[in-house]
Amino acid sequence: MSSTPSIQEKGLHVGTQPGDPEKLEGVTEDFEVFKQTEDGVNFRTVGWPMATVIFLKTIFALGVLSIPSAMYSLGAVGGALSVIGWQALNTYTAVLQGDFRNNHPRCHSIADMAGVVGGPIMKELTGAMFIVAYVILTGSGIVGVSIGINALSHHAACSVWWAVLATFFVAAAASVRKFHQIGWLTWIGFASIFIAVFVLVIAVTTRDRPAAAPQTGDYEFGFYAIAYPTFAAGMVASCTIFVSGAGTSAMLPVISEMKNPRDYRKALFICMSIVTAAYLSFSLIVYRWCGKWVASPSLGSAGQTIKMVCYGIALPSLVVSACLYLHVAAKYIFVRLLRDSPHLQSNTFTHWATWLSCTFSLAAISFVLAEAVPIFDYLLSLAGSICFAPLAISLPAWLWIYDHKSWRKGSVGQKVGFWLHALFIPLGIFVMIGGTYGVVVQIKEAYASGQIGSAFSCADNSNST
């Protein structure tokens, strides 16, 4: 069991519903990781509107670029149901995580929460998965940025050099210490990706046939209401859709920097409502007009000119997305190293050296990973299966069970609720094993067919389904 005391362990009860701020404000402040302070660095500066936009930018960008190609594997009906089902589940498990964090406000990250329910070993294992997950997502963001620069430059240089440049910009942006300070970037990032995808949607609906399809003669369009994929292809597509909204563990460090952590649910529900509606509408339209010829990332689906326009608009968003993923991973290590030390909120050499070392070392690892597996969909699916399945499905259920042990022997309704939450644990394990198998099979086939060249090659790694 973790040595970190919770509010309940101190004899102070806080329910799972947002409580009276006047009653909770003084209680939770004693347990918060970051204190409200005028001396040193005050991290508690994020209001719920800014938190909403940070959440939106964390969740939205990469998913909207990858889901249209996943639709081809699952079909329009299966893809739409998958989007609705996974985003509903992601929203609910995000509620479970946020409620647990606010009941145990000493928890800064999902690893801290795992330590409360599973002890030191589970904390270390979860922390490792958390870092790996967001390093993979940072790598996918670097791939997206390098593809965008490639498109805008007409391949004027080797794509590896563009990836190096992308990594530098991402690391520089992520090195800003507070979520509040990068908040204005999230506004720009969300607006840019939304506008870029809107331009793409309009562009694909004006073409007689998809840009990547043969422009004369008969061709197979590849739009299916119901598709019958192989197990591997279906799992990769499903994991791609799942991971597009599964990064909710990145929201937890933001809660620790909110002025009022009890506003978390408000920001979450607004964020996930917008994300689900956008994913469903944009991906169905792009798949309906592009069929099997949809590109991955999807911004390249309407021809070279529109591809350049879309990437020109979306480039700030791609940089900001990777920046947020890197910032979240680096902040976890930073807090872990300096927690309860005077350097955590002081402008000391140790403070800055630790923070910059965390940021730039993880950026370097992300770059190597991006060049080793340079196809956008596969990186996202890999993150979803290996890391986010246990982090966003199994672990949140365990957190709920920990705080609701009495339900196991309670009323009939409580018993049903208890065992329904318990089913999430094997579901997460199935997605982890099945999704990882599917990604490995798909990557092996991509290398064998030449779709992926050798590591650190200069090939353009955007592709059509």
UniProtKB/TrEMBL annotation:
It is a multi-pass membrane protein. GO terms for cellular component: membrane. Belongs to the amino acid/polyamine transporter 2 family. The chain crosses the membrane at residues 46-65, 72-89, 128-149, 156-176, 182-204, 225-247, 267-287, 308-329, 349-369, 376-398, 418-440. Coiled coil: none annotated. It is found in: Membrane. Its main location: membrane. Residues 1-22 are annotated as: Disordered. GO terms for molecular function: L-amino acid transmembrane transporter activity. Keywords: Membrane, Transmembrane, Transmembrane helix. Residues 45-440 form the Amino acid transporter transmembrane domain. This is Amino acid transporter transmembrane domain-containing protein. The lineage of its organism: Eukaryota, Fungi, Dikarya, Ascomycota, Pezizomycotina. InterPro entries: AA_transpt_TM.
